[in-house]
Amino acid sequence: MVEQKPRITAEELAALDAGRITQADLARSKGVSRATISRWTRKTPGAPVPYRTQLAPFWPWKVTTSHQRAAAYMRAFDHLRVRISGAELDDERTSKLIAWYRAIRANGEVLAYDPDAPPTAWRVKHGGFEYLEREPADKDLLIRVPDPEWWTEERRAAWKLPKDLPEG
């Protein structure tokens, strides 16, 4: 008799969609690969569109795997998850995101990506990402991309630095 592999429950789908668990966490708990979880998610009727698929049109860079561990990458990705898919982050990630916004605002910076940018001593330990001095053309955006043609009205709205931040 062939053992039936576990599938994804509605509760697990909701947790994935809300960002409370990752595909990797779910894969470990079920004893399957992350790719299997991704495939199951796509084949499950009524499953939400994976947030990475939702965010892809708004993500301007092809980031190397080693740079995906960078805090800058995680904060930028969390920013888009909240802005585009309406995800609710856990308290720790929310605090880190708000602190990131405050630092960018206080330092007058924007985030940029260059795969050849070297690591810095404390802020960009994995390299690739760099914080550049804000220029007038950056307006109220969080990021700078090399190709000005990349920007659309929707992308500008997605990448705006929030005006009002919670106290704390």
Number of contiguous helices: 7
The backbone outline, from C-alpha atoms, is globular
Distance between the termini: 58 Å
Oligomer: single chain
Topology pattern, helix = H, strand = E: HHHHHHEEH
Mean pLDDT: 86
* Strand fraction: 5-15%
Largest sheet: 2 strands, antiparallel
Low-confidence stretches: none
User: How many strand segments?
Assistant: 2
**Total domains:** 2
What's the Cα radius of gyration?
18 Å
Q: State the strand order across the main sheet.
A: 1-2
Helix content: 40-55%
Class per helix and strand makeup: mainly alpha
GO molecular function: DNA binding
List the helices and strands and how they pair.
Elements lengths: L9 H9 L4 H8 L3 H10 L7 H5 L15 H15 L5 H17 L1 E5 L15 E5 L19 H6 L10
Antiparallel strand pairs: 1-2
Helix pairs in contact: 2-3, 5-6
